[in-house]
Amino acid sequence: MEIDLEKLPFDLDFHPSTNIVAAGLITGNLLLYRYDAEATPQRLLEVNAHTESCRALRFVNEGRAIVTGSPDCSILATDVETGAAIARLDNSHGAAVNRIVNLTESTIASGDDDGCIKLCAIFGGYAVLVVTYTCKLCKTRGTAIKGCISVVWDTRQRTCCNTLHVHEEYISDMTFASDSMKLIGTSGDGTLSVCNLRSNKVQTRSEFSEDELLSVVIMKNGRKVVCGTQSGTLLLYSWGFFKDCSVLMISDRFVDLSPNSVDAMLKLDEERLIAGSENGIISLVGILPNRIIQPIAEHSEYPVEGLAFSHDKKFLGSISHDQTLKLWDLDELLQGSENSMPNHSAASDSDSDGMDVDASIPKPSKGTKRKNVSMGSKLDNSTNFFADM
User: Fold this and answer.
1) What residue spans carry the region label Disordered (predicted)?
2) Is the pTM of this model over 0.85?
3) Is residue 48 part of a domain?
4) H-run or E-run covering 333
5) For the chain (length 389 residues), average pLDDT per consecutive 10?
6) Does the residue 143 lie in any domain?
7) What is the residue range of 313's domain?
8) Taking phi first (over 0 means left), then psi (-120 to 50 degrees means alpha), and beta for anything else, what does residue 247 get?
């Protein structure tokens, strides 16, 4: 099943309970479609959400609203049924908003091009409040400097945490470990960070990689963090079930997807992930033992920009530079995968990380995979996002 978006898409997300899929476009528009296996997808809404591209989006509040982010530095919440703007925070970040991820039904995290991550609490169905706290490191208030992760935890009592220096380049991806309340972020500076949302602190940061880290998933019941990179190498990090640890260490490298960058990944189960590559190929990959189980789809000859599962996991959605959103029957894609033979890169599934790691720490890369769209205005001290609702 294929949807012609007519313009370049940057992100996609599926409604959490019904057959609706959303895409954010380079034009700043937000598109919503209803899909069915036996019918042509039907466009439900087209919203002119942002003055610049719509880079990031996620459904929130049980699918009643959708939150989008843009290089114009704004975050917008849109009513899914009517397409009406619920409210907009015009200066949510000091740089282009590049990534949004769900934490709970009432909380999201957003990451920008300057390495800043913010956590926003959503109240009463639609009310979102963002509070900026004084940074103990840079001694500023109301602004986020380059290289800071601004972790803003706004509870019903409007408490919040500090601003801590972590990343030096754009936030490429984030994922959330709900059982341990850890937010994992990857960056173009070649590092992986872990924010402890219980203590509102950055808990640890990985060693520098020679590659930009572009995508991230948690595997093996929290024992492994897998990162896709610009070179196509998958880096496996070990970090003790996300308990206290001084540093994330690279425990393994899987190079069989090289030289094509791995821009998007989805966790299928604890043993397998789905990777979208720069050459347009979507692959099923086994982790420990590490192997390409099989290529399962080819979106196009262009890079796969995003992947997502439908609410019932019957469909895999993919977007690419060919301006299409494709919906793949997941059962059909996975047929025959169990019979695929492992290759010579296979390694045993063990918690023993005795493999060599880099002795030297290379300089961080320059963030060449960043979506090059102009950034908006500087961050304002806003505390009333969605206050009217």
Assistant:
1) 338-389
2) no
3) no
4) helix 330-334
5) 96 97 97 94 96 95 92 92 89 88 83 84 44 33 35 32 64 92 91 84 84 95 93 87 50 92 97 97 96 96 96 97 96 78 45 36 44 41 38
6) no
7) 186-364
8) beta
